[in-house]
Amino acid sequence: MLLWLLCAGLLVPAVVLSVVRLVEPDLARAAQVQAFTPFGIVLYAAALVLLLLALVRRATRSRLLVAPLVVAAAGLALHAVWFAPLVTGATPAAAVNASPSEVMTANLLAGAGDATRLVVEASEAGADVLVVSEVTRGDVAEMERVGLSDVFPHRVGEPGAADGYVSSTMVFSREPIELVETVDTTFDAMLVRTGDLLVLAVHPAPPTLFAQWQADHRAILEVAERAEPDVIAGDLNATLDHAPLRALGDAGYRDAAELANAGLAATWPVDGGFPLLSLLPPSVAIDHVLVSDTWTVTATRTVDVPGSDHRAVLATVAPR
Description:
The chain is of the alpha+beta class.
């Protein structure tokens, strides 16, 4: 009995993850569940080990184990295929004599994140472009006190008021920056040109606002296909398992973690914003630096921003 309870506890949530990823129901809750698709690997693998041990020890009749063994093995294989691009595959080389750029994106959680720490981290990392979501006037004032204008003398976008619901997105750059166009999404998004980069800075609505989330991602995809930015960066409120990011992949955009074989590179949730999940390391990757098929990523990592429920993403990008 204990064997079957343990197997059910592992296989039921694993199968739910598989079904949601395959079917993608048009529901907010399904989109939230889908963010945890990679955890299917752990669940199926644990169930498979448990079932194989039971088979070896003859803890139950072998024929009763066939069906759950098949489910566990097939599920593990399926999720491994979905996850494999994050840890395998060749990284396209940068062009000879190419000048790399450091792109960083962060979410400051409407003034809760440590804005001064973000400037220090970006400066020490040599970031050339910094995309910041949910940035307030207070954040910018704090950033100025630690030399924001010295590190990033150019900017576009306006900070928001610290009212707990901040839609503002700003882009800071070492090089002169031009606002090419704004994008009609729930939160501020914009296409900018700075140095050698055409950057689409985005922050679509979360999947809890499901209709807006879908509409925002359609708008982002339309701009990506039409304007062909070199980089798409921001809190995309979606993982590589979600249809909107797979659509960007079909349009030629690759995630920094994928190109650098960096694995999951999870960025959310952290710092107590979600008490149960925050007991663990960040578990889903919803902050991204994506590059077009004429660019590559030579390195990427996540960066802690105390106070925010997101980790920042830093990526070194270069033309192929």
